[in-house]
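Standup notes
- HV: blocked on the assembly model, inputs below
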Amino acid sequence: MVGTFFRLKLAVIRNAFGGSGTFAQAGAVLVWMLAVALGLGAGALVTIVLGAVPEQSTVVLASVFTAYAFFWLLLPLVAASFDQTLQPRSFELLPLSTRTLATGLAGAALLSPGAVFTALSLGLGVVVGVGGGLAPRVVGLAGVGVFTVMMIGASRLLTTVLSDLLRRRRTRDVVTMVVMTLFVLPSLIGGFIAEGVAGAGLGAAGRVASGAVEWNPAGALGTVGPRVAAGELLAPSAVLLYGAATSGGLVVLWGWALRRLQTTVVSDHVRSARGARRLQPRWLPRGAVGAVAAKELVYVRRDIRYRAQLFGTGIVVVGLVVATVRGDLHHPMAPYLAGAAGFLLVAPLTFNALGFDGASMWGYVVAPISGRTILAGKNIAAFIGSAVLVVPLAAMLAWAAGSAVHVPGALLAAGGLAMLWAGIGNVLSVLGAYPMPDDNLFANRTGSWQAAVAALGGMIVGAIALAPVGMAGLLAWARWGSAGTTAVAVGALAYGAVIWFAGLVLGGRLVDEQVTRLVSVLDEH
Amino acid sequence: MGNLSSVTAVSYRGLTKRFGATLAVFDFTLDVPSGVFFGITGPNGAGKTTLLRMTTGLLRPDAGIVRVAGTDVWDDPVTAKTVFGVVPDQPGMFPKLTGRQLLEFNGLLRRMDPAVIEQRAAELLGVLGLADDADVLVADYSLGMTKKVAIAAALLHGPRVVFLDEPFAGVDPVSRQVVEQILRRHVDGGGTVVFSDHAMDVVERLCSEIMIIDHGRLLAAGPVDRITEGRRLQDVFVDLVGGAALGPEGLGWLGRSSG
């Protein structure tokens, strides 16, 4: 059955290369070329490091595997990834056991850009970088294979369980905070270990760090090749067996979580208070733009798809708070970090602004409003959300760093950054529109390779647009201090406003022109 | 069917839409008069939904013109959309709004006065039996309730023409009667209802005028009496589009196998 799923995925990929428009084809080619090229590049890097410190190959490979595991778990939560994943929902009505479905889907997931990147880079590192003949390399490759399956199972299990928990009003806020803290924890632990190492030399703390890297389930799989090369047999075999059992267990657990997610309907059961049932608060602008903004603000509170997209923002905010409490942020420019958090909030909300409620797109289209009105309303909601986050964060960071003088500049820069990105996002939202899943919140959607091209293009344009302002700010700070950065921040706000307006006009026009495609692409339910 | 007149609610001229090699709607020319209950019927895949989507600005035609109340839907969409309301076949409403908020949102998008929205929304929710669930999320509505709130949203701004794609699918008999009454009142007030449905008895009972389409082509259009000429609409329909009969030996394995 795994072979059937594998062939199905292969057919989906082949179809993507051969059909559904030039843009989508280009996306498919680009994503796979990037996966292969980056995989080979990362593999070469691992090989170089292993070549430089051959006696440390066990620790190096364990560290690389551990780092990969961290990214496998983190990336699906904080960033969109692009893969034509088979949708579990499509198999709901087939007579497949939970285990068969999960192993089949996991097998198919081996044909994803992330898995190919992982297998290529680690495989290359093990084959070229581990010495000692054929046996260590073969065992090392087995470790890579088990690791890749383990990561597929672990990341799918995490996102599926989170999707289920986050749907539930009673648990979602607690779960959100716990998960965000968990992701900040490694840096905290790393900090403590680094302090220990600095304070006591490479003694106990160093051994603790090394042990943690080598004996966590992911890191241990990286050590099997070097251990065989060192003449060990029992430990690598045990690690491989343990890894395989863990991988199988994770995949089976994922299957159960998936079944539960698909067969349990969770209702928000929101019944608005009679006194507060108005959609549009009085402080929002009257008319259609204000209505769209009001609806978006309600959705940020109620729709779990919006909240899930803000995981990255939350992790950064928790990280900043932790760093402040630890007293790490003494730099006078610290308040400007608030702008980065604001950016991380605005980016996901504007990057695919039409995809959150894609199935409702027709509701906008049949109303007598322009595309510009829709985007403007969504942008205003994102700006309001950003302001709510950035202002107290900048104040906190200024307090921690003792540099209140930088707060005005930080707020202006944050506004400019948010508007710049919203302007680019308005165009991206049309060119790379894709429907956000409403059940498996972190899953990828069919057709998103086209979005990959748009997203990559948008990020490049954004970086190019941002570079001159960033450089001007740094130069001004070096030359004139806070007065200089504040002056540049005023310019940044104006610059951002210009780009936002241009993006709004262009994006609005694209919505009007591509309305048929948008309704069709976004309503993939 | 040549010239447009002031009594024309919807006007099609040479409307054509292809999906790859498939001709969904071909050279469609027709006038739907104002103040009628107009039914669009045809077999599955005939082009009914495609036609309605092109009429309401959801699907851009390859060629031809659609005018609603005299305004070209694709040349001046904003003006055209002020005069009609739409209920699609599967209305993916804004599910995280409550029913009342959904109506408010629709009214605000149409730049209606908030006081008028509130008054009309209360009336519509009451008549449609949704008053008790007005403050419940649309996501928690049943299919029938979703259809009803979609109908309320389409009628809120008092449109001259209402387009409904299979409006009675999933709606219980009591609610269906209420919806029929509301739509009749709309027609009695001078408005036009254009809806698609497979159920011939519903079409025959409600509509004064109909069209039958198949494979994207207009087979018949006009007053029901003239098309049926005393026969049942079901029989006329099958004669026009052709029927497929199942022979006694066909699909004999049905019900005998579990594999």
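- HV (later): unblocked. The interface with chain A takes residues 56-60, 77-82, 84-86, 88, 91-98, 100-101, 104-106, 108-111, 114, 135-137, 139-140, 153 of chain B (CB under 8 Å). The first strand of chain B starts at residue 8 and ends at 19.
- Next: hand off to the docking folks.
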